[in-house]
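User: Run a structure prediction on this.
Assistant: Running it now.
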Amino acid sequence: MIELSGERLAAAAGATAFADGPPGGATRVVIDSREVRDGDLFVGLPGERMDGGEFAGAALGSGAWGVLVGTPWANEIAAKRERGGGTGEGWVLGATDPLGALQSLARAWRRELGAGVIGITGSTGKTSVKDVCRAILPVRTHASRENFNTEIGLPLAILAAPPGTEALVLEMGMRGPGQIAELCEIAEPDVGVITNVGPVHVELLGSIEAIAEAKAELIDGLTEEGTAVVPADPGVLGPHVSRARRRITFGEGGDVHAREILAEAGETNAVVVSPAGERAFKLPFVEAHNLDNALAAIAAGLALGLSLEGMARRAPGIVFSRLRGELVQLPGNAILVNDSYNANPVSMRAALDHLATLRTDGRRMAVLGDMLELGPGAAAHHREIGEHARDVGVSHLIGVGELAGAYEPDVHVPNAEAAAAALRDTLGPGDAVLVKGSRAVGLERVAEILSEASPSAAPRDGESDANG
C-alpha cells in the first residue's frame, strides 16, 4: 500500500483534488483501467490515439481508490458526481500533465520509503544484475518488473514497492539522449551501475561514443553521496567515469573481483575479493559473463553498505528472468539453450562462448536471428558474429530474418516457425543448440515448438541479457 492519504498524494503529484474519496492510501497504481481492482489508483495517461482519462469513470465504477487524470477529465467526473451521476466514491485528482504527476508521485514515494536506490543501465546484463541484486541483497529488496525501465514503467516500479522496503533496484532503459537523466530525476539513485557499453541502439544514437555519453547520464544523476559502479575496463565509458564523486569497479583487475574460480556442474564457486574483505560465493550458473554480472551486483550492495557475508549466504538462490539462457531438454539427450529475449553483438558473443563450454555428445548448433538497431554497420556485425560462431565450434548455423544472411548460415529462413522446422529436420542425439536473436524476431517460438514433445526444462544454467 502507498501510505499517503488522498490529500498528501495529491500534493506529492502536484495535482488538484476535485472530489474526495476514502481515507487511507491506495493499494497500488495502474495505468490500464481493465486491471483496476478495489483500492487501486488509476492514472489515465494521454496517448497518441486516446486519452486514458476517458476510462476514469469506469475505473471508479470498478472500485478504484481514486483516479489521477487530466484536469478536464477530473472536472467532468467531479461535476457528474455532484449531479448524482454515479461515478463511484473514489478520489478524483486532476493534473495538467498526468505523466509528470505520476513521476512526481513516484519520487515522493521513493523519499517516503527512505530505501537505498540502485539504478542499473548498460548495453547488456542490466536485467541480470537486477535479478542478482534482488536475490542477494540481505535487506528487504524490491526490484522492478521486466521491462519496467522507461519514463512510465520506472515510476510504476517505484510505486509498487511496499512499505518497509530497504533497497529499491531499478532498471533504466535508454533509447536516446536525456532519457537516463529523466529517470534519475524520478528515482534519485544512491548507486548507479553501468554494466558495459556496446553497439546497441547505434541506429538511434549514431555512434558507440554517443551511447556511452547517454549511459553516463546515470553518473551525473546520482545523489550527492552516490556511488558509481563501473567495469574495471570501462572502454568507451572511460572519459566519463572520472565525473563520479565515488566509484567502485568490478571485474578482472577491479575493486570487486573473483579468484579461485571453478565453474562446473551448473554452478560457479569463487572467492570474491572486495574492499570489505573476501568471501567464498556459490553461484547457480557457469557463464563467465554472469560472474561479471554478479560482481557488479555485489559491488552495488557494498556501495549501499551491505554485508559481503550476507550476500554470499543468499547467492545460491539467484534466479534469472525467463528466456535468458534457459536450458530445455529435448528428445535424444539434445539440449536447447533458450536465450531468445534479445541480442546484440556483445551478448551474442557471450552466449556463443557459453555454448562452447557445454559438454555434449553431438554437435554444437545455433539458431541466430537478426540483431536490430545496429545502424550502417549491421552487416559487418552480423558477419563477425557468424565468424565467431564457427570459431567456437558451431557446425550448423540457421539464420533467421533478413539481416541474418550476413552470418553466412548453413540454412537461411524468414521466421521462427521456419527455423523450428529446419532445426527439427537436422537435430540429432546429444546436440546442443543456442537460440538467440533480437526480441522482434520472436525466436522463443523455436523453443516452444521444439519442446512440445518434451515440455520439461532442465535446471537453468544462466542467461545472457541484451536489452538496451
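DSSP finds 17 helices and 20 strands in the chain.
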